[in-house]
Amino acid sequence: MKNCMVIFLILIMVLFSCEKSTYLVNSDPNYPTIIKIVNAERLTLLRSDFAQHNIYVGSSLNAFGYCDYAEIPVIVPDPPVDTTVTRSDLINIVQEFLLKNSSCTGVSETDNPEIIKVIERNNFRDGNKHWYMVISAQKIDSIDVLSTLLYVTIKGREVISCMGNWFPGIYVPKEFNVNEVLAKRFLIDRTVTHIGMSGNPIDIKITSESLQKSTGSLVAVPIENEDQIEIHLAWKIWVDPVSFILYVDVMTGEVIRQEPTLISLHPI
Predict the structure, then answer these.
(1) Residue pLDDT, tens place only, 203-216
(2) This prediction's pTM
(3) 163, 189, 221 — which closes off a domain?
(4) I need a surface site. Which of 53, 192, 204, 221 has the fewest CB within 10 A?
(5) Which long-range contacts (CB under 8 A, 24 or more apart) does 34-37 make?
(6) CB atoms < 10 A from the CB of 9, how many?
(7) pLDDT exceeds cutoff 50 at 8
(8) What share of the chain is helix, strand, coil (3-state, %, to 5)?
């Protein structure tokens, strides 16, 4: 056990004596979770099946087979007029739709999606009510999964649009190579850039002092490439003194995403 600890400490010393671009090696073959695009022939079948089973829905499926806008406008019939729908009815309507289309929404029977925002519109010629809803983002235990809000529109008692999805089967390694403390160390001396009102870049270096005031949390980050989505686990580090959030991979220590917390004319 002592020998293992010595080796670990030596590894850390070597790591931080190297260039800042040096990252740890991910040796877990199951990480990150990878979702491939669906081949064209199968995607055509999936889209057709989705349309047949959801005759009032004008949205469709994206290249990964998940609910999204329709690349080609879809003409669908208007749902029957029903002005008796209440907000409590919406929960059942939404849940039934998400589960009926589980393979396209990523929501399973063991999940518990919640409606977090509702906008009601009822000034349409046909007299039908429209409900625009935002459904809660996915969680894996206490881990938030980014970019997984669902947007559902209901007219009368029928869903007419659904965009967004959850991701089933996200893999979470039992042990991380990088804890929150180490993730912050990877950020020391890293430069972030804001764009000022004049359009000129403003570079700010992250220091150990600025990281002392930073906060961190564990999140899952979907990253879409040309033909696949990779879902990484990352430490979300909010470095308030430099007005930036950086996402550090839990296995490699690499910054896989970053975003400013200030509004600029030209966001990074």
Answers:
(1) 999 999 999 989 99
(2) 0.86
(3) 163
(4) 53
(5) 34/228, 34/229, 34/230, 34/231, 35/64, 35/167, 35/228, 35/229, 35/231, 36/64, 36/227, 36/228, 37/63, 37/64, 37/227, 37/228
(6) 10
(7) no
(8) 25, 30, 45
Of 163, 186, 210, which residue constitutes the final position of a domain?
163
With contact defined as beta carbons under 8 Å apart, do 137 and 144 qualify? yes
Which amino acid appears at position 36 of this protein?
A: K
* Average pLDDT of the chain, as a whole number: 89
Burial class (CB within 10 angstroms; exposed 0-12, middle 13-18, buried 19+) of 30:
exposed
Q: How far apart are CA 187 and CA 253, in angstroms?
A: 9
Instruction: Give the count of alpha carbons within 13 A of 111, CB side only.
Output: 22
Partner residues linked to 244 by β-bridges:
239, 260
Range of the domain at 129: 54-163
Contact 164, 223 (CB under 8 A): no
| CA gap 73, 263 in Å, rounded | 34
Domains identified in the chain, total number: 2
**Nearest Cα to Cα of residue 222 among 170, 146, 124:** 146
Q: What is the DSSP string of 174-243?
A: SS-S--HHHHHHHHTT-EEEEE-TTS-EEEEE--HHHHHT-EEEEEEEEEE-SSEEEEEEEEEEEEGGGT
Give the CA angle between residues 197, 202, 205 to the nearest 5°. 150
Question: For position 43, what pLDDT does the model report?
Answer: 97
Comparing 23-27, 124-128, 130-134, 248-252, the range with the smallest average pLDDT is: 124-128
CA angle 193, 195, 199 (to 5 degrees): 145
Same domain, 157 and 177: no
